Amino acid sequence: MPELPEVETTVRGLERILRGRRIERIEARRADLRRALPVGLGQRLTGARVTGLRRRAKYGLIDTDRGDTLVFHLGMSGRWRVDPTEIEKHDHFILETDEGRRVALNDPRRFGSLDLVRTNEMKDWAPFAALGPEPLDLDPRELKKRLAGRSAAIKLLLLDQRIVAGLGNIYVCEALYRAGIHPRRAGGSISTERLKRLVPAIHDVIEEAIEAGGSTLRDFAAPDGELGYFSKAFAVYDREGLPCGCGGKVKRIVQGGRSTYYCPQCQR
Ligand SMILES: [Zn+2]
């Protein structure tokens, strides 16, 4: 499943093809993905110029000079194919630039989405309205404030999009390990000292994953649903029963219906 680093890598890859280009043609090969495609998509995008690309949480944003932003989500299995020689069955949306380059949104399971939002109304768009700060913008004081009084497990709180946006299971497990924090610890009980280790750990894990994604990116194409190169660097994720550097063994527990991996010796 594409996580924040994969989405960031995707946005950077698409940026090289789309930024500053005029959209010559689009083709919607279905009327819906997870939900219906926006009405008037073709009319509003054709002829528009792409002014920039951004990411918010796990959404990619393509801004145009008409004040519209095309927002994509890759869902469970989505990826953009770049300059495909042949259009495949699961290429649901195709965008062609004035340079004749093509990108195709391929999504076999169709949990992804495409929306067209007015750029200046983006902050209030329903999926964005309640989102917490980006992980890379987070600082210990801000996190302390957001965790104050919360008795839920830190692992679950970090996965809550209202506290931090777009942080996935893998990255939360790895960051807690690096910070030496037990995943079941009550969020509100973690000292500022320890949050000062946790926040840089979150930044590092995300940045390393983005870099790893970038280095394995071929023809700027994006995630293939695999974790790719970064998986080799996991210290605890998906390593149940395997040794930790401390001599202990990685343990797996289930929290909120999802696996948590941690080292009982290193994380308190
Ligand atoms: Zn350990």
Quick overview:
It is built from 7 helices and 10 strands.
Task: Kindly report how far apart the N and C termini lie.
Answer: 29 Å
**Oligomeric state as shown:** single chain
The secondary-structure element order is HEHEEEEEEEHHHHHEE
DSSP helix count? Answer: 7
* Helical content band: 25-40%
Per DSSP, what share of the residues sits in E-state strands of 2 or more residues?
A: 15-25%
Bound molecules: zinc ion
Could you give the order of strands across the largest sheet? 1-6-7-5
pLDDT average, as an integer?
Answer: 91
General description of the model:
By secondary structure, the protein is an alpha+beta fold. Helices cover 27% and strands 21% of the residues. It is built from seven helices and ten strands. A four-stranded antiparallel beta sheet has the order 1-6-7-5. It has a four-stranded antiparallel beta sheet with strand order 2-3-4-8. A two-stranded antiparallel ribbon has the order 9-10. The chain starts with a helix and ends in a 6-residue tail after the last strand. The model is unreliable at 216-229 (pLDDT under 50). Bound molecules: zinc ion (ZN). Zinc ion binds next to loops. Residues 244, 246, 248, 263, 265-266 line the site of zinc ion.
Give the topology.
Elements: H1 4-18, E1 23-28, H2 41-45, E2 50-56, E3 59-64, E4 68-73, E5 79-82, E6 91-97, E7 102-106, E8 113-118, H3 126-129, H4 140-147, H5 154-159, H6 169-179, H7 192-215, E9 251-255, E10 258-262
Antiparallel strand pairs: 1-6, 2-3, 3-4, 4-8, 5-7, 6-7, 9-10
The protein binds zinc ion.
